[in-house]
Amino acid sequence: MHKTDFLVIGSGIAGLTYALKVASKFPDKKVLVMTKATADETNTKYAQGGIAVVNDLENDSFAKHIEDTLIAGDGLCNEKVVEIVVKEGPERVQEIIDWGARFDREDDGDYKRGKEGGHSEFRILHHKDVTGKEMERALLDAVAGQTNIEFIKHCFVIDIITQHHMGYLITKSTPDVECYGVYVLNLETNRIEKILSKITLLATGGNGQVYRTTTNPSIATGDGVSMVYRAKGRIENMEFIQFHPTALYEPGVRGQAFLITEAVRGDGGILRNKNGEAFMERYDERKDLAPRDIVARAIDSEMKRTGTEHVWLDCRHFTKEKFTEHFPNIYEKCLSIGIDITQHMIPVAPAAHYSCGGIKTDEWGRSSIKSLYACGECASTGLHGANRLASNSLLEAMVFAHKCFIDAAEKVKDISFNHSLPDWNAEGTTEPREMILITQSLKELQLIMSDYVGIVRNDVRLQRASRRLDLLWEETEQLYQSSSLSPQLLELRNMITVGYLIVKGASFRKESRGLHYNTDYPGKSHLVQNIVL
After folding, report:
1. Which residues pair with residue 3 across a beta bridge?
2. Which of 292, 297, 366, 468 is catalytic?
3. How far is Cα 123 from Cα 116, in angstroms, rounded to an integer?
4. How far apart are CA 22 and CA 89, in angstroms?
5. Which domains are assigned to the chain?
6. How far, in whole angstroms, is CA 525 from its chain's centroid?
7. Catalytic site residue 212?
8. Local confidence band at 395 (pLDDT 50, 70, 90 cut-offs)
């Protein structure tokens, strides 16, 4: 058994920002950061484009950034939260600069600012085309200087510990459900351990792996959302899955796709169909810089209309010097598969990218379960509404990590450890005889979600997905109850839960709004607001 004052699950920008703040404020208290892989293998690491922030008030304003965010969110943003994130954002960005993050600068020392879809001004700070990786590096370096932060790597969190594990019946309407810590599978010892905590922060990232093709790394399996749902916490807006319009199309490649950042279009890249036509003007007056939901649906429509598996991103009018200065990583990746961007167009197609819904939180990052906070992509703070504005996610993670820190710092002094919690009971389980039972179920899940619950949906597809997911859930629960636990089985179980929540939310939403487009309900309804599960 381990005990810690502050438990942080996840080591991306949200988790590390929070850990650094609580460790600095409470040098006498223990901060434990857990990750199921290595410390830097996070969604943050793969964020290319940058971070949206208003720090040039001569040419930009908070009002413009707020308005851009609200327009992208299509009527479902929490306006108070949008104002908090936009106005507190500059101070949080300055913090990470002070911690060592290096954003690109002009010759005069001012920051280079990019423009992406849905933004009315140039406000995206970036480090080449590996902004997330640079921010993660700065945070890990800063965390390394804190003696009271302990990292536990290669540990898989199984479940949040609540009164349920003490024998109490917990339902969605049960008041005062509390988080006492977590059960974890230590992958190095293969033992299930109990970790007690006063305050727990979930910063577990996204769930893109429920789809066949995603820009997310293999760790993005929706673990935090699934754990909170099982613990009877509130989840909302899971139907709003953002598909990035431009992932690199490589024939035969499944799983994690290489992202071609939206900043390429911000710098002048043009989408073309197989006939060479610049088609975006037929779909939106903002053309290639329309919000992501519009661009992704336009590409999907062109692919279906022309019978192709991708469209093209034309950057041939860029000079090599201009492209390699801002996008060296993309240039090298394309070159490695025989694409010289000065001579060839880049084949691109949409891929699952970001979950706008998640664990429902308030403006302080508090979940519906006491002593449990959520931050980053696993949380639904109200900022994104029905569609995330490009490059708002890193900003949100930093602002809400700070909000969680402020609130937790006040609460921790009044919380004691609960020492009456039972150890994990694995009695009666055996090693699974065939791993194919897990791997095949995962393939089925990804096919179901990609074919039936993708960019465009309808009621028949959602009904089919629901029936097939029910069967997968039954089979996987039987395996879970009878088998000794493995990361593969735990991730499968979590992903099936996430798939169920996405389908459930999509089935309840009898309209088309933002990232959810149902051909049976092409219009919007003012009666449908946030869907809480």
Report:
1. 196
2. 292
3. 9
4. 19
5. 2-239+356-414 (3.50.50.60), 248-351 (3.90.700.10), 436-508 (1.20.58.100)
6. 27
7. no
8. very high
